[in-house]
Amino acid sequence: MATVRDAITRAYRRTGLVPLGGAMTAAQAQEGLALFNEKLAELKDSASTDPTPLELPGGDFINGAADQDGNLINAGVLPALAPPYGLDDAKPFDDKYDFAIIGQVTLELADVNNIDLSDRYVRRVNLAWRSLLFDFIKAPSTQFDPAYRSIGRRPGVTRL
Fold first, then answer.
1. 96-132 burial string, b = 16+ CB within 10 Å, else e?
2. Any residues with CB less than 8 A from the CB of 130 and at least 6 apart, and which?
3. Which SS3 state, helix, strand or coil, does residue 152 take?
4. What is the mean pLDDT of each run of 10 residues along the chain (160 residues)?
């Protein structure tokens, strides 16, 4: 099973600070662990009960943290995150989220160490992060969304 250390090492390799086959120094491991735990805490906070808008990478916002009754949608997974994690703990997320989470740690490491990453890579990481957020974040009720309400008025379209 992959560990937090493995995830952080991958982030360092993507920045070029740790060569392929190389190992992180103790200082790098601690810096990476702090950034890793910070990102997971940010992710967990996005599933909190706070109904304030959540800012996504790129300056977009999701308004409304819960539906009209205060129910959280898909909030059962993220509250299980319990940062801080140690280097030898099992990686606390599914493999399908590796690119998004490890990518965000990579972006932070690159920023801290003044390393330029390609614009394409940065865009891909931010899109993956946004996709991860939409998998788990609370969605506001569509009850009052004009686009949703108008579906039943279109010829040949039935309302869900």
1. ebbbbbbbbbbbbbbeeeeeebeeeebeebbebbbeb
2. 56, 57, 58, 60
3. helix
4. 91 93 93 92 66 45 44 48 86 85 94 93 90 64 52 48
Query: Has residue 159 been placed in a domain?
Result: no
Report the 10 Å Cβ neighbour count for 46.
20
Residue 160 lies in a domain: no
Q: How many domains does the chain have?
A: 1
pLDDT digits (tens, 9 = 90+) for 49-66: 444 444 444 444 444 344
**Distance of alpha carbon 89 from alpha carbon 45, whole angstroms:** 21
Distance of alpha carbon 11 from alpha carbon 110, whole angstroms: 9
Domain containing 141: what range?
4-153
Q: Are 117 and 19 contacting, i.e. CB atoms less than 8 angstroms apart?
A: no
In a domain, 42, yes or no: yes
- CB of 17 within 8 A of CB of 103? no
Q: Confirm whether 143 is domain-assigned.
A: yes
pTM across the whole model: 0.67
- Give the Cα separation of 102 and 104 in Å (integer): 5
Determine the Cα–Cα distance for residues 24 and 41; give it in Å rounded to an integer: 23
